[in-house]
Write a structure and sequence with these properties.
Layout: E1 2-3, E2 17-18, E3 24-26, E4 28-30, E5 33-35, E6 42-47, E7 52-58, H1 62-79, H2 84-100, H3 102-113, H4 117-137, E8 144-146, E9 153-161, E10 164-168, H5 174-188, E11 191-195, H6 202-213, E12 221-223, H7 228-237, E13 241-247, H8 250-260, E14 266-270, E15 275-279, H9 285-297, E16 307-313, H10 317-329, H11 350-365, E17 369-372, E18 391-394, E19 411-417, H12 420-427, E20 432-433, E21 435-439, H13 443-452, E22 457-460, E23 472-473, E24 475-476, E25 479-480, E26 482-483, H14 485-490, E27 493-501
Parallel strand pairs: 3-7, 10-11, 10-13, 11-12, 13-14, 15-16, 15-21, 16-19, 18-19, 21-22
Antiparallel strand pairs: 1-2, 4-5, 6-7, 8-9, 9-27, 14-25, 17-18, 20-24, 23-26
Helix pairs in contact: 1-7, 2-4, 2-6, 3-4, 3-6, 4-5, 9-10, 12-13
Amino acid sequence: MYYHMYKDNIWRPKIFINKGVSLIKTELFIDGQYIPSETRRTFDVINPVNAQPMGQAAKASTADVEHALEAAQTAFKKWSRTNGDERAARLKTAAAAIRDHEQELAHILTAEHGKPLNDALKEIQGTASAFEYYGEEARRISGEIAPAKSATSRSLVIRQPIGVVAAIVPWNYPVSLMSWKVAPALAAGCTVVVKPPELAPLATTKTIEVLSSAGLPTGAVNVVTGKASEIGDFLVSHPITRVVALTGSTEIGAHIMRVASDGIKKLILELGGHTPMVVFKDANLERALKDGVKRSFRNMGQICNAVNRIYVEQDIAEVFIDRFVKMTEQMTIGDGLANPSIDLGPMIDQSGIVRTQRHVDDALQKGARLATGGGKPDAPELQAGYFYKPTVLTEVRQDMLVMHEETFGPLVGIATFKGVEEAIALANSTDFGLVTYGYTESLSTAFAFGEGVESGTVAINTVSPDSLYAPYPAWKLSGTGLELSRHGMNEYMNVKHLLLEIG
């Protein structure tokens, strides 16, 4: 990978650092510039391929967070009054700038996260698309004229930006999930303070630098890096913060709700999931197998809509399981920078391996069969990093952890069912409701299943459930509010009734 450091050890757009020469370092990005933490503290960012430091980020204090919030509040006074055309132009310019730097950003993302370079590049490209899309949506903000309550009155319904947004970003897709929050917030006229994940903060910070340097007003987007335990509650509870947008675990989401409750904040929470994939006997088996393996293990299963459990109709279960296991064993694992086209990189840290192994051990102790995987790969070059084999369990039951507790790792359990009603009951058997996948060639089965499942998204014959053009809602313990589409932008606006008496 190619980088270059300035004397202050800060990466700049269109400049590269030679591989292995130096750590990638960032400071806090506040009011349009990099500044050190008030305490000058920093923390290491670890490359999960070898468990060695690859970068360093500033560790923000609460004073730094307040500085960022104040910068965003100042910027909001001007940005909220811009028209849709101006916001559209600036967001599209930002999107173009991200595309110009996609290679640099993807390399940083792979180095700090471990995902294969080709996957990281797709994430950066998707981020640019989000800013481009919401640039268009900024032009389409509209209201309505409500029926008049009398002959001498008129009722206008308008939308206005809420205020400063705290965007709290997860580590599994840090750059793209940042864009799901920042792009619609900016399009709506809000300004943002972003809290990137501690485990992978660098690519997100640098992406915001790029889009900010491409024409966004000073202070419109700010970045504070550091430990959530030290600055998270302060960011959420601060009176300047009016919206909290979070992707994270259900436990963290519940905590955020408690912290935000005194200030009556607007919450957009995309939380944990436990995604079922249901394969009916009339399904296109080739498609179901290919998609099932892809969505079970991509990003090492560290995706909120990864397939956690598969239910296969009894008639085809034996064939499906046999072929699924063989396809899983063909997946390639390694260093995503050295081999950009591999299927899987490492997990983000050791805690993910511990959690995955706990779920495997629990299932085996309760009678499940280990079909493949179940431990660290044997290759010597993979011993230092956080690698784990893609793992398939069969003969599983609902009381096993793998079937009701999110693993967030490369593990899937496969069980069987008989008939549409049982399929729906099994899909609905957890407290989560983010995404459900169903495979069938029957239109009537697709509708019965799709309408019966308690899930914000039901994807039939595909495991690509999200679209910029459609909402991505969360049901049950998977969250509240929604992201993507014009509905996602509307989350960042208040509705106002403007009543005029003209008689």
